[in-house]
Design goal:
364 residues; alpha/beta; FAD/NAD(P)-binding domain; D-Amino Acid Oxidase, Chain A, domain 2; 3 domains; seven-stranded mixed β-sheet; binds flavin-adenine dinucleotide
Length: 364
């Protein structure tokens, strides 16, 4: 019997496995795809994540970003970023490298097998896969993304409408290390061009916007690139929309399966890794004190819920008044704000206090 079974080898599952193997636990990862697997994602990330993982960005071939350009129609505002604060990643490489590090630390990997059922008996769990295999574990971590089967098993009930993001990944040699964010394209969302090593990820994310109209809007960002044979890939985003049940006595949800993506930025990797860290601490504490894992829900929300809620509130104002907010951006150093938020050097509550002092509300 394994100490912990992790379902899903994305950033939340692989980092959970990495953290737990470092603590000497016997961990099994079950991933439905063969690795490395592609995941549609702009791959934007920050130094904070590498520090949390205790693995340097070079290990993931991360691409360091030096500038951010905020665009509205023909107008562009450019900001410098503090050096080595923001990076982009190819998700297939990042996720696979994390899984490899976990396996080097002793985790076992079963890939190409989908978890289709979970049974609980006498304090242990049995996970069944589509190939008819059964694996037994004391604890289970659901890291199986937005459509999580584990979340359904524990009755997490994430049944609200989820926003959609679409993207094309275009091969592009030596891109400029600058991310571009496009405002004013859709009512509740934004477009992006994220450079990565020899690739440009060009995408659009929105809620409350017709999915059918999204490719047409995206085509405006693609007009200067040869993208004819490259498919548009779509994936829902697991935005936070209020508290849910995230744990039972021996099961925990992390990352997108817990719906903890930042509703303002769409950034999900940071909270995926953060939730893995909280899962590690909770499991260790519960083993030591022989307590149920149920405390995880409260533990995670005590760290994340306030910020996620504020991000949700801010997004409601920001995306409704994009033209006015773009005009106000001259007053702020958006590069530092972005870098500080993503690196947790500032919080949404601190930012909001600052903004409320500066922004004349008559302008909105
Ligand atoms: C277009 C787009 C752009 C984005 N850009 C960014 C960005 O720039 N920065 C950022 O931080 N976030 C971004 N995100 C969000 C980010 O991609 C997710 O938050 C992140 O992938 C969550 O990681 P995860 O490990 O929880 O889930 P996932 O990455 O979805 O991993 C889940 C894994 O579980 C496996 N799995 C699923 N079901 C089963 C099963 N039944 N059995 C076994 N395995 C299973 C899947 O194959 C997958 O490998 C973006 C999302 C989209 C859609």
């Amino acid at each position: 019997m394994h100490d912990v079974i992790v379902v899903g080898a994305g950033p939340s599952g692989s980092s959970s496995a990495l953290f737990l193997t470092r603590r000497g636990l016997d961990v099994l990862i079950i991933e439905k795809k063969r690795l490395p697997r592609y995941k549609v994602c702009a791959g934007g990330t920050s130094r904070y994540i590498f520090e949390l993982l205790d693995v340097p960005p070079e290990c993931f071939d991360a691409f360091s970003i030096e500038k951010v350009k905020v665009c509205y129609g023909d107008r562009v505002k450019e900001y410098n970023l503090p050096s080595n604060s923001i990076f982009t990643l190819h998700r297939d490489q990042f996720d696979y490298r994390l899984t490899q590090l976990a396996c080097q630390g002793g985790a076992k990997l079963v890939e190409g097998e989908e978890t289709i059922g979970i049974e609980e008996e006498n304090g242990s769990l049995t996970v069944k896969t589509n190939l008819g295999h059964k694996f037994r574990g004391r604890y289970l971590i659901g890291a199986d993304g937005i459509g999580s089967k584990v979340a359904r098993f524990i009755g997490g009930r994430f049944n609200y409408r989820v926003p959609l993001a679409i993207q094309k990944d275009i091969p592009y040699r030596n891109p400029e290390p600058a991310i571009s964010l496009f405002m004013g394209l859709v009512s509740m969302g934004y477009g992006w061009i994220f450079p990565k090593n020899n690739t440009l990820s060009i995408g659009l994310g929105a809620y409350a916007f017709s999915p059918k109209k999204m490719p047409e809007v995206l085509s405006r960002l693609l007009k200067d690139f040869d993208h004819r044979d490259i498919p548009i890939l779509a994936h829902p985003i697991a935005f936070y929309r209020g508290k849910k049940k995230l744990a039972t006595r021996n099961i925990i949800l992390v990352g997108d399966s817990a719906h903890i993506t930042d509703p303002f930025s769409g950034e999900g990797i940071r909270n995926a890794v953060k939730s893995a860290k909280i899962a590690e601490e909770t499991i260790l504490e519960c083993i030591k004190k022989n307590r149920p894992l149920s405390i995880y829900t409260e533990k995670l929300y005590s760290i994340m819920a306030r910020e996620l809620f504020l991000a949700w509130m801010i997004s409601g104002v920001f995306y409704r008044f994009q033209d006015k907010i773009f005009n106000l951006m001259d007053r702020f150093d958006m590069g530092t704000i972005l870098s500080n938020l993503l690196n947790e050097k500032t919080s949404y509550s601190q930012l909001l206090k600052k903004l409320l002092r500066i922004i004349p509300f008559g302008l909105l």
